[in-house]
Amino acid sequence: MALAATAQNGHFQGRVVRFTRHAFAGAFRLFSGRLSFGIVRIPPLRQFIRSTARHRRVLATRVAGPLALATALLALSANASGATAQGDLAVPRPFEVGAGLSGNYLAAIVAGSERDTLAAATFFNEALRVDPKNRDLIDRAFVASLANGSIDQAAPLAKQVLTHDRGNGLARLTLAVDHIENDRWAPARAELARGGGDRSKDITSTLLTAWTYAGAGDTRRALATLDTLKEDVFVVFRDYHAALIADLGGDVAVAQRRFAAAYGAEHNLLRVVDAYGRFLASHGHVDDARKVYKDFSEVLPNHPTIVAAIAALDAGKPLPPFVQNARQGAGEALFGLGSSGGRQGDELASLIYLRMSLNLAPQNALAIITLADVYERMKQGETAIDLYESVPKDDPLRVNADVQAALLLETLGKSKEATEHLQKVVAAHPENEEALTALGNLQRSRKMFSEASETYSRVLSLQKMPDKSQWILYYYRGIVNERNKHWPQAEADLKKALELNPDQPLVLNYLGYSWVDQGANLDEAFKMLRRAVDLRQRDGYVVDSLGWAYYRLGRYNDAVNELEKAIDLKPSDPVINDHLGDAYWRVGRKLEAQFQWNHARDLNPEPEELPKILDKIKNGLPDKPALAGGSLSGG
User: Fold this and answer.
1) Who wins on pLDDT, 83 or 266?
2) Position 610 in a domain
3) Per-residue pLDDT at 180 exceeds 80
4) Which of 494, 527, 535 lies closest to 511 in space, CA to CA?
5) Domain count across the chain
6) DSSP codes of every residue in 253-284
7) Cβ(279)–Cβ(255) under 8 Å?
8) Looking only at Cα atoms, what is the longest distance across the chain?
9) What average pLDDT does range 415-432 have in this prediction?
10) Is residue 568 part of a domain?
11) How far apart are CA 397 and CA 306, in angstroms?
12) Which CA distances in Å does 546 have to 354, 445, 559, 562?
């Protein structure tokens, strides 16, 4: 279902990235005013799964759009277009640049702090035009241009940086990449050598230097350079790139040995699997290639890249290597490094590596998708959409990119465009499970429950064999059937979800609460709710369900105990505040009840709930509450 492991799946942890720091030292503070570098997490192309942790809560997916640039505060003139691409889904981001230094500089600082790379690069470069000798502006414009993928603009700036900072590793790396792009192998190697750092520990410089030798036709020197990487953490990188270089240089025996070594060390890395499979197939070992792909499918079923490769093998079609020259090989190295580590808030290093990678290998769909995910995490949805739109139309990952673009449109508040785009994807690919599931989730978030139920049923009809992963589909279909007042079908779906995943807390929570609300199966229902709380003790919604179940049975003191725990976990949730207010009222704590209801009113509750809350604030609760049903044995 969800597309996972699109990149190097996290095996290469922070140690790999740590040895590249010298190239970036001091650069990141120039972009947004602070130093930020970390371990870049491996971004999957996420399936649109928004869990409903509490009964009757079906979450929508809208989030706030990007923060305004400093141009909202400054009177600026001239015009600059903010759209980075002009595809069908391109979301225009117009902003203005001014003629003055201070306005553009302040706007650039704000844009950088918001990780808007396009605006930051534009404003810094405009400021530099007014004050071209300013070293700080040169440095900042350089990093911003690089982060925005403008290598042609960054390379001249890198030369200016080096006039006052000869040891700037990022400037050296930028010039090296520019040389590699233009097949200038010796100058590229010279810049990498001047970048500083211990070659035995500097994986970036070592990999790129090896590829410069490969570009010059010196396979032996290329492999010898890679073999200077001795540490265990580098083994897969080293052998993987050695295999690619040996294959490019025509040394099939060495390529076979190195591919086998990399695959043996990490046989669940998508990129290694795909490269090895292509190598085997291109050298006549089709059955071995098929086995490599199918073994991966056992770990991660239905990955589009793997499915497409197996289909090509079955049809007797060739599988060309995705690295066909040294430029692409260097791009592959930068892609691997850019996607091999990181965490939320420290995306800039990953972004720069991926931008450099795409400058050398622009058709690498995995790199595009990984970069788009980085922009998503930086809350730059418009740029991410442009990137998803740039995935090659014939690439197996294009459908998944289209799905993700549609979901991003939804988060940007463009619901109509999101639905239309996703419906087009489904119409063109009626058996694509991810596209159908995403459509079902959009329909569910908009309370189109009948349509969502039908869509989830379509997905399940495509899956002929029962599988544990299907629990989420039955769970979602159970939710929409329950919301559509089709309880027998909903109950059957929720029971099926538990059959497939017996201890799933979300399902335990939903089914248990539903039974309590109906006054049915009370003993079993409370066992489910308590088990859900045991499994998700820090989930305020799940704890709220148990508390509200106690309330519905008239056990108000127990309700207060659980709901106070829930409010500690989710203090800003209007529903939990409303529930706690009701419980306080029933135990005679009426002043506190009024406080909670007022708080619930101010937390943007659902439109249909607001009149009820206002009535309680004015009139309190009726003396005789409607209870859900009988008593609990042993409760």
Assistant:
1) 266
2) yes
3) yes
4) 494
5) 1
6) HHHHHHHHHHHHH-TT-HHHHHHHHHHHHHTT
7) yes
8) 88
9) 90
10) yes
11) 10
12) 46, 24, 8, 7
